[in-house]
Design a protein that fits this description.
This protein is mainly beta. Helices cover 6% and strands 42% of the residues. A hairpin with a 4-residue loop joins strand 12 and strand 13.
Length: 336
């Protein structure tokens, strides 16, 4: 494992929501999240993140890039798509007011969305089709692994769906699972609350891996060279260079901020945390997208809009922020 450098792309602020997910297209990065109040921002050069509109005035939980589209899901049954980097959104009726947590794209081109109370739906066209995975427990995340759709549960179980049938697999977790990745060499790795990490050669059985933390772990991803990275509560960043067999903490100066999300970006990864924090972990000298044109140059920068401290924000940034969210309902026809 070579040296890695951690750099802050967007500093945290108490006025912003947590970064739950990233979607990266050929042109832009969209970061979104928030609990109650939504947080949506976009950048074309990883230097200037501009505030964008949200589908509704509720928090968001996941994002998925599909060609030039970005899909989002979140609180109160939100499912929406934007084709202009969050300037306008088209919402789809999901038939639920439960929180939707995660999105995945199947090999057949269908979009999958999961959430509270066992909600699972397959979207191919305008209307989600509900799918029974045999549980009413919360699904925290969903992934497409070859021909399988894999959902992680708050009951610590993994469910694999293929050809109309869901199979439940025990991972050894007794608390919520949060994320899954399959390494470039084919190793399945899941993480969850209480410092849970487990690995499997094929996703049929799992063995737990010892780590040096009991913090809730939120996301795991592989970098371009196969290095695995896990993030979580209390500023936890864990690194593995041996297919997840052993893990070392990555030392940094971010403090005990809760880190929620990961997305691969160039030779490194982007990490999202509380208060709109966005950092990049990459090999030294990584300059991915550094020379790109700023497509949002006319938009207010996040650090300027959310000036430090409530007083400064009200005095200097509130008008700009309110203008950005004034048209919260999308321009497109509301399909709810």
């Amino acid at each position: 494992m070579g040296d890695l450098e951690l750099s802050v792309v967007s500093a945290p602020s108490p006025d912003r929501g947590f970064v739950a997910a990233f979607a990266i297209t050929d042109q832009v990065i969209v970061a979104l999240g928030g609990a109650g109040d939504p947080f949506v921002a976009a950048s074309s050069n990883v230097q200037h993140f501009a505030i964008r509109r949200s589908p509704r005035a509720q928090g968001l939980r996941d994002a998925l890039a599909l060609a030039d589209q970005v899909w989002a899901c979140g609180e109160y049954g939100q499912l929406a798509v934007t084709r202009d980097h969050g300037d306008t959104w088209t919402r789809l009726a999901t038939g639920t007011d439960s929180c939707l947590f995660s999105l995945a794209l199947g090999t057949d081109g269908a979009l999958w969305v999961v959430g509270d109370h066992g909600y699972v739906a397959r979207v191919l066209g305008d209307r989600p089709q509900r799918i029974d995975f045999g549980t009413t427990d919360r699904h925290s995340a969903v992934f497409a692994v070859r021909d399988d759709i894999v959902a992680l549960g708050f009951d610590g179980k993994l469910r694999r769906w293929r050809d109309g049938k869901a199979t439940t697999i025990n991972t050894g977790a007794t608390r919520p699972l949060t994320w899954l990745t399959v390494s470039p060499k084919g190793t399945w790795l899941v993480v969850g609350d209480g410092g849970f990490v487990a690995r499997s050669p094929d996703g049929q059985w799992f063995s737990r891996v010892a780590v040096t933390t009991d913090a809730d772990l939120e996301a795991i991803h592989a970098m371009g060279d196969g290095t695995l990275v896990v993030v979580g509560a209390r500023g936890t960043i864990l690194i593995s260079s041996d297919e997840g067999r052993t893990w070392k903490p990555y030392e940094h100066t971010l403090g005990d901020v809760h880190l929620w999300s990961i997305e691969r970006f160039g030779g490194g990864i982007l990490i999202g945390g509380d208060g709109g924090l966005i950092v990049k972990l990459a090999p030294p000298g990584d300059a991915t997208w550094a020379g790109r044109i700023d497509l949002f140059a006319g938009e207010a920068k996040l650090d300027a809009v959310f000036a430090p401290g409530p007083g400064a924000f009200i005095a200097n940034g509130l008008a700009v922020y309110l203008d950005a969210i004034a048209k919260d309902l999308p321009k497109d026809e509301d399909e709810d």
